[in-house]
């Protein structure tokens, strides 16, 4: 059985259309990820360390010598189909945030500056009771958690509409967010 039949058998659907990536926390980790994707798309960098782009998966026994790249085996979104946004308590766009973080080479982020500047953070849900040593001006206001969750859902719907994303995923560069996967899934519908 080849891997195409295997995908059909397990009900994995093709990755059609744009994939919206919504990131909670747009600091050093998030800007490195987004800048890296854009640098790869422009041919300015290689996807070194990317499991989805360079990693392989062994099929059968080692002696079978069947190890396709993961990106060829699974119907993953192409890097050119990724669109980005996110939430942060600070108002810095991704270029300013990447510059302040100092993780990436300045020459690289300057080459993709217009792209990074186009990604501005949405106001975040933030509660100082959970993170006492951090505060910022870009925070949603709401009378209760349900009201804040509805605002996040509205952000997701608007991002899908404005970016043309057919589906989205939420990524937490902040290590926060729902502890239960089903709670995050309900949020993204």
CATH architecture of one domain: 3-Layer(aba) Sandwich
Categorize the overall geometry: globular
Residues in β-strands, percent: 5-15%
Helix content range of the residues, please?
Answer: 25-40%
Q: Which structural class do the helices and strands define?
A: alpha/beta
Strand line-up across the major sheet: 3-2-1-4
- Tally the beta strands: 4
Q: What gap, in angstroms, lies between the N and C termini?
A: 35 Å
CATH topology grouping of one domain = Rossmann fold
Radius of gyration: 19 Å
| Run of helices and strands | HEHHHEHHHEHEH
CATH-defined superfamily of one domain = NAD(P)-binding Rossmann-like Domain
Largest sheet: 4 strands, parallel
Mean pLDDT: 85
Helix count equals 9
* CATH class type of one domain: Alpha Beta
Give start-end ranges of low-pLDDT stretches.
Answer: 1-7
């Amino acid at each position: 059985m080849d891997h195409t039949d295997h995908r059909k058998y397990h009900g994995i659907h093709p990755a059609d259309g744009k994939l919206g990536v919504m990131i909670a926390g747009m600091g050093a980790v998030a800007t490195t990820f987004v800048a890296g994707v854009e640098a790869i798309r422009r041919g300015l960098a290689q996807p070194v360390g990317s499991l989805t782009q360079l990693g392989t998966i062994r099929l059968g026994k080692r002696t079978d010598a069947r190890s396709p790249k993961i990106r060829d085996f699974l119907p993953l979104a192409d890097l050119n189909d990724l669109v980005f946004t996110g939430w942060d308590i600070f108002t810095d766009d991704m270029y300013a945030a990447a510059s302040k973080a100092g993780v990436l080479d300045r020459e690289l982020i300057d080459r993709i500056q217009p792209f990074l500047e186009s990604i501005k953070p949405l106001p975040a849900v933030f509660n100082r009771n959970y993170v006492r040593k951090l505060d910022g001006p870009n925070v949603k206001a709401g009378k209760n958690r349900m009201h804040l969750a509805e605002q996040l859902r509205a952000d997701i719907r608007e991002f899908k509409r404005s970016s043309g994303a057919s589906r989205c995923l939420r990524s937490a560069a902040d290590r926060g967010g729902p502890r239960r996967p089903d709670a995050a899934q309900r949020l993204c519908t």
